[in-house]
Amino acid sequence: MTKQLMAAVAMVLIAGSVSVPAQTTTKTSKTQKRVVKHVESATEREIRELREQMQSQQAQINALKSQNAEKDAKLATAAADAQSANAAAATATATAQSVSSSVQANADAVSTLNSTVNDLKASNSGLAQTISDTKKDLTEKIESPLAIHYKGVTITPVAFFAAESVYRSRATASDIATPFNSTPFMNSGQAHVSEFNFSGRQSRLGGLFEGNAGTFKLAGYFEADFLSAGVTSNSNQSNSYTLRQRVIYGQAATQSGFTVSGGQMWSLVTETKKGTDNRTENLPMTVDPNYHVGFSWARQPAIRVQQKIGGLTAALSLEEAQIIYSATNANANFFLGNAGTGGGLYNATANYSDNIAPDIIVKFAYDTKHYGHYEVGGLTRFFRDRYYPNQTLATPSASGAQNDTKVGGGFLANARFPVTHFADIGIHTLGGTGVGRYGTSTLPDTTVHPDGTLAPIKAYQGLFSVELHPTKKLDIFGYAGGEYAQRTVYLSTVGTDAGKLVGYAPVSVATSGCNTETLPSVPTSGLGSIGTAGGAPYDPSASCGAATRAVLEGTAGFTYRVYSNPRFGRLQYQGVYSYLKREAWTGLSGAPNATNNMVFTGMRYYIP
Fold first, then answer.
1. Which of 108, 141, 174 is the C-terminal boundary of a domain?
2. Looking at the 3D structure of the chain, how many domains does it have?
3. Is residue 512 domain-shared with residue 594, that is, in the same domain?
4. Exposure of 320 by Cβ count < 10 A (0-12 exposed, 13-18 middle, 19+ buried)?
5. Per-residue pLDDT at 508
6. What pTM value is reported for the model?
7. Cβ-based neighbours of 383, under 8 Å, separated by 6 or more
8. Torsion from C-alpha of 525, 526, 527, 529, nearest 10 degrees
9. What CATH number does residue 580 fall under?
10. Residue 117, SS3?
């Protein structure tokens, strides 16, 4: 509808609205008298319809306005709600961010707490393990102490208990200790009988005493066994052999490697496993307590000093001296010692030399980590006797007696090295003048000149060893050794002895009887009484003037450790076979030899 039309319609409506009330009033007045029926004209109808349309449109307009107002209100509400929502969203975002930060912080705190808890668990677990280990260690030390503690001294017991046996194809009237230089020649009845003996006498008792005084580490050590015979000892009933001093010494050591030891100990000549340290002696693994031919050793009183510098050890030892003497056709124009004096606490049945000075031994040892242990050294010995030049006169006289001193000595070298993880090889040598006493066979150190002055004898000793360790329980070993004493003889030009050979192993000695068995001594009692030791029927009788040239021995054996535990100790068995040969110097009827086959067995229990 156009603006003009709307304006026309509005005018008609206005006019109609003015005229209608007047007519109505007239009609009403007139209708009070009579009813007049009005017929609506077309114009009025159009006007009425237009009015109705206008009203309808107005109503629609009002409705639209109302709807618009409602929408505006809703939009305002929605805008407010949106604004509120945005604010809430911002608040929620801030809250979320704060919560996220809190959550992250909480997560970090939880992670830290978990880490701390894990650390605490680990710490507690370690602490529990430490407590358990400490408890176990304390219980172990209480129930199974490694040593006994007395004030500031630690005491470690040392002991083993042995049951051993020996079989020899030629009897020597000996326990398990073999007198190598006394294996009988064929003239002795003992060369035609064997012997078998059981023994427990090598069982050992001892202890190590240690005290750490700060500047010095102090130590004392002793060992004792029963390989000694008293005047009442025998094997008839109680087998009451005496306890003997084996090793006993005191020691002081500094942190710089300087050590002083004094007492009875292994000679410095003896090979060691580490430096020149006591208690590391490298002994053959045999059952025989006299060890093996070719092995150089002694146990005697000594004073030893040593200094370690890295793998090198230098040592000096002053040791008790004794002389082993042997001679044929010697004159009675000298002496070098005497039988022991009971009041001086020496054995009255043993001979002792009158020593002028101790034996002096120097040794250098070098230890390597992978290539073994090596030793070189030397020893100096002093031999003195008193001789009587006028003893050979027609009228013997002690006037003009003098003391004579000779100096001897030798050189030693030892090497022991691994060829594989399971095998070790050892080489031992000692040679010089007057060194026979330090060999296992104890060949003589010196003989004598016709005028009564001493003459040291050249001697050599050597030992080759192979020791296999196929398992932790089993050792297999083999040894080959020999000892030699040189013939040392002088032609006498003195008095009635002129032309006589004097000394060690003269060729003029009769050896014809050394291979011919002789009759035993005639019993002195018809009742079969033993009588004195060595009397019939304990005297197979043998007479042979041959002097030993060399003693040789070859050995093979094994050691099997049946059980070994640091708490309960070790049980082991040994089996050893040795072949021994004694060779004499040639005399008027040749050079006799003596041999022996020996089998040793041993069972030992070592305390832990």
1. 141
2. 2
3. yes
4. middle
5. 92
6. 0.77
7. 323, 336, 405, 406, 407, 408, 434, 445, 446, 454, 456
8. 20
9. 2.40.160
10. helix
241-252 burial string, b = 16+ CB within 10 Å, else e? beeeebbbbebe
Structure tokens at 67: 């709807």
| 373-387/359-367 β-pairing | antiparallel
Q: What is the DSSP string of 55-69?
A: HHHHHHHHHHHHHHH
Q: Is the pLDDT of residue 573 over 90?
A: yes
Quick one: pLDDT band at residue 364, thresholds 50, 70, 90?
very high
| Residue 24 binned pLDDT confidence (cut-offs 50, 70, 90) | very low
174/80 same-domain check = no
User: Domain containing 399: what range?
Assistant: 158-200+269-337+351-528+544-606
Which residues 6+ apart lie within 8 Å of 599 measured at CB?
166, 167, 575, 576, 577, 578
H/E element, 10: helix 3-31
Segment 299-321, tens digit of pLDDT? 999 999 999 999 999 999 999 99
Q: DSSP letter string over 433-450?
A: ES-GGGBTT---SEEE-T
In a domain, residue 226? The reply is no
In a domain, 585, yes or no: yes
Query: Per residue in 137-179, pLDDT tens?
Result: 666 666 667 789 999 999 999 999 999 999 999 999 999 999 9
Q: Is residue 220 part of a domain?
A: no
* Res. 58 pLDDT band, cuts 50 70 90: confident
Q: What is the mean pLDDT of the chain?
A: 86
Q: Are 154 and 209 in contact (CB under 8 A)?
A: yes
- Who's near 191: CB < 8 A, 6+ residues apart? 170, 171, 184, 185, 517, 594
- Pair (115, 169) in one structural domain: no
* Residues contacting residue 352 through CB under 8 Å, at least 6 positions apart: 322, 337, 338, 339, 340, 346
3 state DSSP class of 111: helix
Query: 101 with 177, same domain?
Result: no
Query: CB of 558 within 8 A of CB of 526?
Result: no
Name the burial class of residue 163, with classes exposed (0-12), middle (13-18) and buried (19+) by CB atoms within 10 angstroms of its CB: middle
Same domain, yes or no, for 124 and 165?
A: no
Position 210 in a domain? no
Q: Does 172 lie in the same domain as 65?
A: no
